[in-house]
Prior knowledge:
Elements: H1 2-31, E1 34-40, H2 52-65, E2 87-90, E3 100-101, E4 104-105, H3 106-118, E5 131-134, H4 152-166, E6 171-172, E7 179-183, E8 186-190, H5 215-226, E9 233-237, H6 249-259, E10 263-269, E11 274-279, E12 288-293, E13 299-306, E14 309-323, E15 329-346, E16 354-356, E17 361-363, E18 373-376
Parallel strand pairs: 1-2, 2-5, 8-9, 9-10, 10-12
Antiparallel strand pairs: 1-13, 3-4, 6-7, 7-8, 11-12, 13-14, 14-15, 15-18, 16-17
Amino acid sequence: xxxxxxxxxxxxxxxxxxxxxxxxxDQSTSADRDVTFIVTSDVHYDAFENEDRNERVRDTxxxxxxxxxxxxxxxxxxxxxxxxxxxxxxxxxxxxxxxIFEGKxxxxxxxxxxxxxxxxxxxxxxxxYPVYETWGNHDGPPxxxxxxxxxxxxxxxxxxxxxxxxxxxxxxSASGLHCSWDWDDVHLVLLGIYPxxxxxxxxxxxxxxxxxxxxxxxxxxxxxxxxxDSGRPVVLANHCGFDTDWWHKxxxxxxxxxxxxxxxxxxxxxxxxxxxxxxAPEGEDKPLDCINTGQTENGFFxxxxxxxxxxxxxxxxxxxxxxxxxxxxxxxxNSAWQWRHLxxxxxxxxxxxxxxxxxxxxxxxxxxxxxxxxxxx
Length: 377
């Protein structure tokens, strides 16, 4: 009888204290989430021609470095922008991935200009934050298939290994080209030119330059191993979006099926312009929020995922156009910046693994459902 009484008292104590502690930890899951980052694309460093673009890119980098002195637009609640965890660069890093121009090899010089400006970890370039680049259709063929002896993709493989060694990423694909990592409980996956395994047989563009090199398999394996059924937020990023004809529509649907069970809060891409859209296969009622990030010389997206909310906005230069004497339109910039393409949405709290002690004993916390999205032009 005495033993039963002690067990009853212990159970009552847990209900009063253990459950309360569990609730407190559950409520703190989203409070522990406060992630700000930058996304841009299509840098297109040039060499021996059109090098004025490179300086326009540097103007953008300098503004990224000062972004904590800028406030969020009032439509998204205002307030200061927190220090970014890093900058994602979604391909077309250089303009000519394997080209000789007037007897000069453009590719290595374009690469060196990028590496000097963007650095790697925020301490070795003009950019003050770690950079996470991937490749696009301008960046050249897979390593070993280049004609002129310099491979962008070989450099990317080398840098991804360096990122893993520095703790900037957690997982790197077998090819060395794709990677993933966590910022707080937000899981990010960088997927190269587009998330498929190989070019679709109906696509008639260069199979070498547009080879995704098993990106979809990496994504599936990574999400299963890193996210599982936790429900925590996932961010996908690659060069091409759901508007590119050499990423085939069959592959779009295959990606959707691969991520259907996960809490994908945004798909970032470059290549085709700037703006916000939703996409889902025909007949599906849960579209993905897609953000087309535009060219670096023009601007970049600022993204924040904090607690149960996400907001994103395009920070861009205010260009003016005038007609030059030769009749062409000429753009000029007066150093002013503006906000466009505003997005605000709720995200689920998710189930975040919690670990204690050196042994890393982990348990999971319950999540809340995904809510709505608001976009502002």
